[in-house]
């Protein structure tokens, strides 16, 4: 059996299907599932993976009507979902897509499902109008989110849930954070304008791009002039507002964007923690590119005896693990990896982190609690429970950002420790 050329659509379809099958089996895109794809094909494969995962609910709706019985082979289901996504987004090339999907199927499981893939995709093209009408009438399929997820959004945001869903189904915007230690935002914007990259200021240090760009086209990216970071994520350093000389803890630091932003804004004695050594290395690599330094340590922030020297911190950033419900357009696998019970599970973990980190904060210090979630049990409800447990805690600032065309969804709550 001949190998598929790396630059072929068949190769991209096959690799995207394998990655999606791994996601359906419980793996995360954050586990570098794209790493084994040929670098030349990676952009095309990534587009298929992310796009088809965003549209997964829609694709499964189609398959339920095109198959006599559910497929027991996840790789073939994944291939069909990727191919259906491609057919919908490239209606000018449907015959090529079908042909290349059949070629991809020929390279999977000894080619046993080539005829099935061909038949299903051709049936979709024949029945497309009726299927599109049916999907528009189905609330779960048209929203492309799990039913339990939609219920949570409707209850929490009765006037905004449709806007949140629509944002989650779109490719994410791209924004930059200018390293104010190296260049002013105004000067960097001039550099972008000089090479015809349109952008406008957002937040205190950010630039929102009119269209996504490869980082190697960004002036000075590899020299540390800018970083890619969503404006919503940039709010963490803006709200915490560290001052020169402060002792600061970033308790859940990876991948390191917020760590770096804090260091760009002030001269700090900063400790960055993360659970996994590999993720800590990523933080260190990012700081190195930006010419910044901090102590980076692999540790569980809840286990104070493993890392804390007993000296209190002036400020703590607790960017806690969460459902990522505010950033699903960047993490489309989250919609399909999460389960309803995960919301309560994350909330319990967040409560343990809050209670532990409160102990390392000095009286008069400030703790910024942050999530990339729009679910209240992880956000406002979590803080109300914490305030009920901690008499010395005062609420200084609270904001919930909902995802829109310019930024992702985040929750922030700044707490002060009375003393």
Question: Nutshell version of this structure?
Answer:
This protein is an alpha/beta fold. It is built from 16 helices and 11 strands.
Plain-language structure description:
The protein folds into 3 domains: 9-144, NusB-like (N-utilizing Substance Protein B Homolog, Chain A); 145-172 and 232-419, Vaccinia Virus protein VP39 (Rossmann fold); 174-229, Sun protein, domain 3 (Alpha-Beta Plaits), CATH 3.30.70.1170. It has 16 helices and 11 strands. The chain starts with 8 loop residues before the first helix and ends with a strand. With 419 residues, the protein is an alpha/beta fold. A 7-stranded mixed β-sheet has the order 7-6-5-8-9-11-10, with helices on both faces. β5, α12 and β6 form a beta-alpha-beta unit. The mean pLDDT is 96. 45% of the residues lie in helices and 15% in strands.
Largest sheet: 7 strands, mixed
SSE topology string: HHHHHHHHHEHEEEHEHEHEEHHEHEE
Number of strands: 11
Radius of gyration: 23 Å
CATH architectural type of the largest domain: 3-Layer(aba) Sandwich
Would you tell me which CATH topology of the largest domain applies?
Answer: Rossmann fold
Q: Just give the CATH class of the largest domain.
A: Alpha Beta
Query: Roughly what percent helix?
Result: 40-55%
Mean pLDDT comes to 96
Which superfamily, in CATH terms, is the homologous superfamily of the largest domain? Answer: Vaccinia Virus protein VP39
Structural class label: alpha/beta
Kindly report the spatial arrangement of strands forming the biggest sheet.
7-6-5-8-9-11-10
Kindly report how far apart the N and C termini lie. Answer: 73 Å
Question: How many discrete domains?
Answer: 3
Approximately how much beta-strand content do the residues carry? 15-25%
Could you name the ranges where pLDDT drops below 50 across 5 or more consecutive residues?
A: none
């Amino acid at each position: 059996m001949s190998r598929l050329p790396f630059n072929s659509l068949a190769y991209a379809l096959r690799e995207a299907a394998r990655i999606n099958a791994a996601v359906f089996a419980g793996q995360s895109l954050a586990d570098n599932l794209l790493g084994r794809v040929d670098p030349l094909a990676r952009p095309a494969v990534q587009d298929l993976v992310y796009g088809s995962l965003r549209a997964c609910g829609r694709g499964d709706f189609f398959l339920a009507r095109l198959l006599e019985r559910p497929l027991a082979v996840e790789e073939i289901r994944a291939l069909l979902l990727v191919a259906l996504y491609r057919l919908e987004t490239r209606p000018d090339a449907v015959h090529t897509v079908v042909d290349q999907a059949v070629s991809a199927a020929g390279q999977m499981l000894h080619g046993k499902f080539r005829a099935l893939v061909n038949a299903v995709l051709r049936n979709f093209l024949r029945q497309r109008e009726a299927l599109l009408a049916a999907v528009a009438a189905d609330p779960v399929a048209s929203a492309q989110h799990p039913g339990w997820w939609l219920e949570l959004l409707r209850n929490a945001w009765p006037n905004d849930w449709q806007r949140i869903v629509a944002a989650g189904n779109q490719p994410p915007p791209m924004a930059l954070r200018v390293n104010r230690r190296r260049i002013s935002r105004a000067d960097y914007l001039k550099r972008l304008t000089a090479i015809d990259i349109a952008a406008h200021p957002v937040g205190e240090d950010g630039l929102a791009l009119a269209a996504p760009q490869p980082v190697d086209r960004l002036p000075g990216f590899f020299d540390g002039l800018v970083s890619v970071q969503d404006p919503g994520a940039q709010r963490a350093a803006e709200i915490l507002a560290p001052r020169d000389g402060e002792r600061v803890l970033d308790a859940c630091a990876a991948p390191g964007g917020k760590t770096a932003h804090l260091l760009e804004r002030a001269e700090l004695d900063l400790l960055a923690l993360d659970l996994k050594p590999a993720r800590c290395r990523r933080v260190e690599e990012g700081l190195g590119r930006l010419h910044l330094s901090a102590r980076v340590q692999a540790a569980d922030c809840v286990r104070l005896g493993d890392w804390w020297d007993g000296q209190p911190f002036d400020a703590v950033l607790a960017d806690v693990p969460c459902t990522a419900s505010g950033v699903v357009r960047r993490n489309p696998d989250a919609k399909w990896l999460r389960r309803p019970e995960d919301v309560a599970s994350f909330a319990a973990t967040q409560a343990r982190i809050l209670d532990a980190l409160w102990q390392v904060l000095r009286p008069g210090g400030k703790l910024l609690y942050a999530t990339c979630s729009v679910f209240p049990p992880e956000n406002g409800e979590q803080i109300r429970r914490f305030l009920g447990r901690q008499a010395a805690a005062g609420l200084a600032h609270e904001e919930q950002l909902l995802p829109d065309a310019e930024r992702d969804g985040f929750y922030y709550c700044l707490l002060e420790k009375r003393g």
